[in-house]
Amino acid sequence: MAKIFCVANQKGGVGKTTTAVNLAAGLAKLNQRVLLVDLDPQGNATMGAGINKAALQSSIYEVMLGMADVATARARSETGQFDVLPANRELAGAEVEMVELDNRERRLKDALAAVDAEYDFMLIDCPPALSMLTLNGLCAAHGVIIPMQCEYYALEGLSDLVNTIKKVHAKLNPDLKIIGLLRVMFDPRMTLSQQVSLQLEQHFGDKVFRSIIPRNVRLAEAPSYGMPGINFDPVSKGAQAYISFGAEMIERIKTL
Ligand code: ATP
Ligand code: MG
Question: What does the record list as coiled-coil region(s) (predicted)?
Answer without folding.
Answer: 91-118
